[in-house]
Amino acid sequence: MQHESPPDAWSEARATMVREQIAGRGIRDPRVLAALARVPRHELVPEAQREYAYEDQPLPIGYEQTISQPFVVAYMTEQLQLRGDERVLEIGTGSGYQAAVLSLLAREVYSIEIVKELGERARADLARLGYANVHVRVGDGYRGWPEQAPFDAIIVTAAPGHVPQPLIDQLAVGGRLVLPVGGYDQELLRIERDATGLRREHLIGVRFVPMRGEAQTRE
Ligand code: SAH
After folding, report:
1. How much is the average pLDDT of 118-129?
2. What's this model's pTM, rounded to 2 decimal places?
């Protein structure tokens, strides 16, 4: 389209973002860095936010929701330790950006979004951009996606006040769950299931929008 910057300006902005905000802050997994260098984040944010797409900040995507800061997307993705053959579940599709990043790093991505308009928009955008291994469903992600379980990795991008048990139940042996838990101030947890049980690790402080639906009625 005529009014847009030439494509190389966007990839240059993306390369700078990866170098300064992502690699520069300690993300090492080369596959994660390559995925962030490829996904056209500016195509997944609302028109009015495009010029800020590669800035070091979260951005509004409508319906009072936000797309996370690129560093947080990279950090959580690295914690999932994806090698390419995994089945991944995401709760909180939002713009579809995190799902697009995951789609380059895993075999199949299942993503659930509670706001119908966002879910439908993300589904259309992801299809338009060719991310054919992402499956978006509109609904409450609290109970996961039992028909597609178990998952090798689960990522939650809205914060519940507690860890939803159904998500733990849908974690494969060897699987990793990364999620923010808490109220206004939250912490990112990584829960891993091995043959003997669950291992829980506290990562960093984060701030996500609250998980809506069943998570809130069970506080
Ligand atoms: N991963 C997204 C970030 C979206 S912000 C991205 O890359 O853009 C969090 C999203 O979680 C919002 O779109 C919000 O509507 C959604 N959400 C909140 N509670 C939810 C729930 N219970 N189930 C599914 N999605 C939920």
Report:
1. 98
2. 0.96
